[in-house]
Design goal:
By secondary structure, the chain is of the alpha/beta class. It has a single domain, classed as TIM Barrel (Alpha-Beta Barrel). Helix content is 32%, strand content 18%. α1 packs parallel to α8 and α2 runs parallel beside α3.
Length: 234
């Protein structure tokens, strides 16, 4: 099932409540919240207090992406603040399996991300314990970067592994995604799409989100990595 997760990193931070309401009204079901600490990545964004404030005004699935050192320190805080998905970086976690179990024990969905330079093979041993795997298609830390096509090959490898082993795990891609490269991203096996600048940089955010959703529903899009009688012919 294809899902759009608009990234609030590119939204107007002075109007975050209004921005997230607009995303929800437009028909998206996820909101991607980037958490940066100035150490794991060279930028600082939001913390649990902001997530908690946004939770009060939105029923969206909060897809919280922890780009922070030692994410195990803050899993409980973000879970309590209202995160639905807690995604941490493989490169930053001291004990990945322990953190996966802790997140699930908090009643949240564990997810794991990898940077562009990290081989997708490093992620494969953990997929069976995850609800979602995130492939970064830019260097984490800033919005508005150019898409790295090499991420598509990583997604194909991951999708083939998930399919071959009959694992129930979403594949998310984040960074530089636009309507221009959306089809290539979906065809690589990704089913959770993070888009920031292309959505919030549009003159009409609602219309842009509906363009994405229209592409999801357009004829020829079959479930990633598989087939279905409901698929329309290309």
């Amino acid at each position: 099932m294809l899902k759009l997760s608009p990234s609030l990193l590119s939204a107007d931070f002075a109007e975050l409540g209004g921005e997230i309401r607009a995303v929800e009204r437009a028909g998206a079901v996820y909101a991607h919240l980037d958490v940066m600490d100035g150490q794991f990545v060279p930028n600082i964004t939001i913390g649990p207090v902001v997530v908690k404030s946004l939770r009060r005004v939105s029923n969206l699935v909060f897809d919280v992406h922890l780009m922070i050192d030692r994410p195990e320190r803050f899993a409980e805080a973000f879970a309590a603040a209202g995160a639905d998905i807690v995604c941490f970086h493989l490169e930053a976690a001291a004990e990945p399996w322990e953190l996966i179990r802790r997140i699930r024990g908090l009643g949240k969905r564990p997810a794991m991300a990898v940077k562009p330079e990290t081989p997708v093979s490093s992620l494969l041993p953990y997929v069976k314990g995850l609800d979602m795997a995130l492939i970064m298609s830019v260097e984490p830390g800033f919005g508005g970067q150019a898409f790295m096509p090499a991420a598509l090959d990583k997604a194909r490898i991951l999708r083939n592994y998930i399919t071959a082993n009959r694992i129930d795990c979403d594949i998310e891609m984040d960074g530089g995604i636009s309507l221009q490269n959306l089809r290539a991203v979906i065809d690589s096996g990704v089913n959770v799409i993070v888009a920031g600048s292309d959505i919030f940089g549009a003159e009409d955010v609602t219309a842009r989100i509906r363009e994405y959703l229209g592409e999801f529903n357009r004829g020829g899009l079959c479930p990633p990595g598989g087939s279905s009688d409901k698929c329309l012919e290309r």
